[in-house]
Amino acid sequence: MLDCSASMRNDGNLARAKGLLLSLMQEAYQRRDHVALLCFAGEMVELRLPPRRASAWNDDWVAPIATGGGTPLALGVHRAGQLLEKSESRQRWLWLLTDGRSSESPARPEAADVACVVDFEAARVLLHRAQQLATRWQAGYLTAERAA
Fold this sequence. Notes:
The protein has helices at residues 13-31, 59-62, 73-86, 129-137, 144-147, and strands at residues 2-3, 34-41, 44-53, 93-98, 114-119, 140-143. By secondary structure, it is an alpha/beta fold.
């Protein structure tokens, strides 16, 4: 899941998130994993990549992903849960790349066997919401710097 809300424009966060996304997709391609990509912003969640076996990725693929609006985190997590429920993978991972700038605190989807939150928060006043969400989800937690 990729947070494409307006706050992700700050300090190059979306660009860094796209770079990490490409790295994750490359690893998935090498392992022959199945992947999907949900982008969420404003009031919508967009399935940018329907579930399928990972293929080779490049910068052109993520370049069109833009930012704007609020952070519909609960809607995005709900949609991710639906996709994971349909997955027949042995182990279903949920990666959330976000700056945590949402007042929503959705539950971890039951279908997510493993979850990891990558925190891109870089504001003057840190809210630590992504870290709090990871704790509630009993998920892995990485700052963007550590994930790079």
